[in-house]
Amino acid sequence: MRACVRTLGLLSALLVLSTTTAAADNTALSAADQLMAAQKAGKPTWLLVRDARTRGLDAMRATVEAARKRAPHVAVVEMDRSQAANKAIVKRYGLAGARLPMVLVIAHNGAPGGGVAPGAKAGDKLIALLPSPRKADTLLGLFQRKAVFVVVGRPEMPSRATALTACRKAAAALKGKGRAEKAVIVEVDLFDKYEQGFLKVLGAEAKAKDVAVHVYGLSGRKTGVLKGAVTSDALVKSAGQKQECCPGGKCG
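^ that's the sequence the OP posted. Answer follows.
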């Protein structure tokens, strides 16, 4: 009996040690490694940015943890902006001048979705900025300084095939102007339940009878909406204009 008790005690101790070691290993990972792991797992990330002098950090941590209860699939990474090891992340996302603490919302593909500062609605903003799959595709294209053609419609719509062909030709034309892969085509189904928030931001017509191509130009701004049987020339022209700002004309 005593031997059994000793065995159970030993097993319990080993389990605690194993759990503690796993947690320590995760904490020991660099911010870059944690971000990469989240991307490989297909998870969006809340990147909590701080430095040694940041005030209000505990309150922001509490906000993030409360929000995570509503979105448990989101990875949380905390990063000290002043550390040399994080220099590449700071440069990549333009965090050098950001007021701290702040949380950068990063899509599963590494595209930034917006920043959230401390405040009464910070938790709600963290949730709202989590991008849908197609919005993440759009954000990544913009982040990579490419034109993005967002084709909104249904498979059975009359001009869908024509619009997609025109988008491909426009993308080839942009690439041919001395640029490498300077356009992305993103197709969004009007009835996709996961994309309704993105469609609302786009200003898509829920009862549209034909496709619409929302164009984000090489400037990173929305430059127009072309409907029906669009042409590649019109798309290329629109991609070179400068209007609006970010998906749906809303920044951040």
